[in-house]
Amino acid sequence: MQEKWRIWWATSNIKERRLVVVIVLFLAFSLCYWGAWKPLSTRLDNSEIQLLRTQKTLSWVQEKASLLLKSGRGSQVAQVPQSSLVEVINRSAKRSGISFTRILNRNDTLEVWIADVEFNNTMDWLTLLKNKYGIEVLNVDINQALKPGYIKINRLVLGY
Q1: pTM for the complete prediction?
Q2: Pairing with 125, which of 21, 55, 65, 95 sits 20 to 30 Å away (CA)?
């Protein structure tokens, strides 16, 4: 193949050679532009757009956080209940429609096991415990239940 190319090159006139050189240069330029430069330029533009979106979101969050702190809601301290941890958790769980399969009281923490409970309902209950009573999730072991949207809590440790 290389020998055929040399013979053609030697027997071709100057116009044909120039045309081949121009085509080769055009192909090399095209390969560099569309193979390397254009994809990199597109990625850079997309990254800049994503950065602007992220900065806009950050400024929005900072603005809302400052408004929340000014209104006093962000600085509220959760009320510590007068009743025991067990009573508070039992009452709030009943109101939320959550039933325990097992409860273990350990001085200042409470371990509970819950079988097949709706995920959103559980998150609302845990949010209520945190915001209203100052009870926090110290440790949790969650598995997916058979029903969609439901979870099984193998061990949930709650405490102040």
Answers
A1: 0.49
A2: 65
